[in-house]
Amino acid sequence: MSTLTTHRTPVDLDIRPPKRFAKIRAFYGGSSLGAVVTAALLVAVISLIVAGPDFYSVDNFGILTSYIAVPLVMSAFACVGLLAGIVDLSVGPMVGVSAAIFAALGPQLGFWPGAAIAVLVALAAAAINALAVVRFRADSIAATVGMLTILSGITLAVIGSNPPTYIVDGLFAFSLGALGPFSYLFLIAVAVILAVAGFVTFHKVGRHLRAAGGDENAATRAGIKVGRLRVFAFLFGGLGAGIAGILYIGQNGGPALEIGPSLTFQSYAALMIGGFSLVRGGVGNPIGGLFGLLIIGAVGVLLDLQQINNHFLDVVLGSALIVAVLVDRLRGGDRFE
Amino acid sequence: MTTALTDQKTRAVTAPRPRTLKGDHYGITAAALLGALVIVIVVTTVLHPDFFSGRTLIAIGFTMAITGILSVGQAIITISGAVLDLSIPAGLMLPAWAVATMLGASNPLPTALIVLIGVALGVVWGGINALIVTTLKINPIIVTLGTNFIGIAILSMQFTTATVPGRSELSMFGNGSLLLPNIWWVMLVVVLVAAPLLRYTRSGRHLTATGGSVPAARSRGISIRGMRYLAFCTAGICYGIAGVLFAGSTSNFNPMGSASLLLSVIAAVILAGVRMDGGRGSILLLLPACALLATVQTALVFFGLDAAMQSVFQGAILIIALAGDGYLRKRSTR
Fold it and tell me: Which sequence ranges are marked TM in the entry (chain B) (predicted)?
């Protein structure tokens, strides 16, 4: 017995120098507070320089809260996937396809049938992702790039040259409503975030999801059905994207080709600032994602108000993504050699 | 416990078979690809007889040339263990835009110099990716996802449509054909040069070894950082060549014009049997893989699929190819 347990571990070929930047690591390590605070300060300073103190008005905060409401709903559902260790880049285009289908079918079939079909299409896309990634072990980023293209194609085909408009009176009025600077949609989105946060923190399934994302093998040995949870996570993200698409139509009255990959980036950059990771699951809290999205949204509103070329937001988002992954690595994510 | 021990022992003794790499059935892959190619051609010709023509062949050649060159770059990156380069659209668009701008200048430089600058820009793009991957030590998929997004956004701020003067030497060459399009022949040369370089040169073997196992490669004194630069910059040469030819064969294009190429390229690399976990793959097999994808794409036009539906189809092919690759990996690691 003893010979079995005390056999020598294989020689470690990976000789690394002692960790540098220990203090910085400590600041960003553990909780996501360091990253959120740094990003918020950065955005605050930049906005002061670019727009001056007038930027910090109640009106602008109102614009911000309605601007990020729909992405927030989508992110609340999509972050469960990151926790479970999967990356679904097609959630943004799922919102787009759901919005397009809802706007195209809603006027003919009525609100509920249209909404149901829109959500079902998003769920079907998520189910295909789940089949490819969980059952067949395709790389989740690459496979969902494929789904992203499929959904963009479908959105293009549905919208065509003649974009449908569909104004849902009740929903539209509701979208305009606000409690002080907080739009109703934003408050609902925050409620969803809190609900999801409670679910992943306290509910058994939520804990299992985090365990599955943290260490797949350990979770499997502990009797957790990792595959099943990941399928659930994919479908959950699809459901959220479907609902977000309907809310988008409620807010804007018509679909747009632009909502797609950009929305995914916005959401994932925000989630990563908030402490989630694209390369390892099991870390992050939806409430951190809320703060991340407030920061990313502030950048968007700033660029919008300053009438800066909106491609510039993409540059910011892409850079934020890379920096966020770096911070995540300093927090303890895997090094890529 | 003892039974388990003896079991292990007997297994060790009775199974000295030399381990062959499962899944490296290059001959079978080639046969399957060519078989599928023949089936696609026959089916399309039966349903649409005008498919079988010289013009179709030229069209397939044009589609295949750009994806073929790009897929050589992607395959080198995948084989070297850097998984995937999602920044191909930007890596192609940067040289293409630069070439179009330089050709359109009132007093253009000599074509040879413009081509060289274009290729060099591709290398620069690869170098930027490698720099980020090696200094920040982040997964290349995420790095290139970000750099592609940034690159395309920056290019979108620079131009909305680029027009290549039709009377320039490059356009004459790019649109001309000799049995097959000129740019197809360039692609063939790229493949035929890259394949032996990867297989028989020291650097090429080191690249493949790095993709197989980083610790093993490092313990043999291979510089992993150097290999990352080599992989991304070699791929950059391919993107540069592809970008120059893209500018030469497309009269006008917008910054998003290369987005759909990425899917075909990844699909081609996977169909060619290059495994996503690195260390294995044949450059030569990219030829039948790209031929198949280009033929399917051209055949779809004959079936009346519009651009939107074509992107649906391309996405579906990519997902199926990735699923197949994942399935084979799962089986071979068992």
Answer: 26-46, 58-79, 86-105, 111-133, 140-159, 179-198, 229-247, 253-272, 284-305, 311-328
